[in-house]
Amino acid sequence: MQLPCRHAATLKNRKPRPPPPEHGIFVSSSDCASTDKLTIEQCGQAIDQAIAEHNAQATVYTSLRLCEAKEGPERCDKIGTNQYRVRVQAFFVTMSDPPTAVPLYAPHGSTAAFRSPSNQELSVVDESLKMSRAAMTIANENSRLPEPNSDGGAGLGAAAADIH
Questions:
Q1: Residue 63 belongs to some domain of the structure
Q2: Residue 157 within any structural domain of the chain
């Protein structure tokens, strides 16, 4: 079937859509930069923003006992006198222009995964994600941690584009 001339010109000038950005899970800016997709500076800026988000938004608990009851044993850091917060374990990096990152935490359960601030879990078996060897090691260690006393988050395998 041949298109009318007015449509042929439009199709000829249409630019192909760029592929969606890649995503990865890393433990540091040098870990992120080792993919050769981003520079260490780009990774560092994205991770710095993720840490600022974590510092501004993560729940602060008044005791280690309260933090561990909600987040799980060995998943909290002391940040001040009588102040504890969930420990950042890794970063979900979107390799876009500019790149972005989200802090990741241990999952609410004994699974080889990470959890986003919105409680989406990212499993080591999700082949759509690039996961560094260091991040993979930490995720596998999460499967050996005792579970917290609270209810868990969302299921495994969340779509990479929906992580926040």
A1: no
A2: no
Provide CB contacts within 8 A for 150, sequence distance 6+: 69, 70, 108
Question: Is the pLDDT reported for residue 158 higher than 70?
Answer: no
pTM recorded for the entire structure = 0.79
DSSP bridge partners of 104: 90
> What are the backbone dihedrals phi and psi of residue 94, each rounded to the nearest 5 degrees, phi first?
-100, 120
Instruction: Give whole-number Cα distances, 71 to 58, 84, 114, 129, in Å.
Output: 11, 11, 12, 24
Is 156 within a domain? no
Please write the tens of the pLDDT for every residue from 12-56. 667 788 788 899 999 999 999 999 999 999 999 999 999 999 999
Judge whether 163 and 50 are in contact, CB under 8 Å: no
Q: Which domain holds residue 52?
A: 22-58+90-146
Per the CB < 8 A criterion, the answer to whether 64 and 76 are in contact is yes
3-state secondary structure 59-89: CEECCHHHHHHHHCCCCEEEEECCEEEECCC
Number of domains the chain is built from: 1
Question: What is the per-residue pLDDT across 84-127, written as a single tens digit (0 to 9) for each?
Answer: 999 999 999 999 999 999 999 999 888 899 999 999 999 988 88
